[in-house]
Design goal:
The chain is an alpha+beta fold. It has helices spanning 2-15, 20-24, 55-67, and strands spanning 29-37, 43-50, 83-91. The chain has one domain (2-91): Fusion Protein Consisting Of Minor Coat Protein, Glycine Rich Linker, Tola, And A His Tag, Chain: A, Domain 2 (2-Layer Sandwich). It is 34% helix and 28% strand. A three-stranded antiparallel sheet has the order 2-1-3, covered by helices on one side.
Length: 94
């Protein structure tokens, strides 16, 4: 399971975009996003679990999950269909 979680976080990182206006204002933060997915990687629902405090970073995170579809399929030992997960998305200028 750690391998699948790593693949999932790597895919989110690959599709993450830093909003240009947020870069300009030097906004940073961590958004906690909760999403529900089918076993085939299709996203059914996405919502913020915790805001970064910056509306553009929050909005980008919601779009990110949809852009990254299909997400990596979970291994058989992960129960459920659909599966609901919460993941951090970090925006850092360093």
């Amino acid at each position: 399971m750690p391998n699948w979680q790593g693949q999932l976080l790597a895919r989110l990182q690959r599709y993450r975009r830093y909003p240009e206006s947020s870069r300009f204002r030097r906004e940073e933060g961590v958004v906690m996003v909760t999403f529900t997915m089918r076993r085939d990687g299709t996203v059914l629902d996405v919502r913020l679990a915790r805001s970064s405090g910056h509306s553009e970073l929050d909005a980008e995170t919601l779009q990110l999950i949809r852009r990254a579809e299909p997400l990596p399929s979970p291994p058989p030992e992960v129960p459920g269909d659909p599966i609901t997960l919460t993941a951090p998305v970090r925006f850092s200028l360093r």
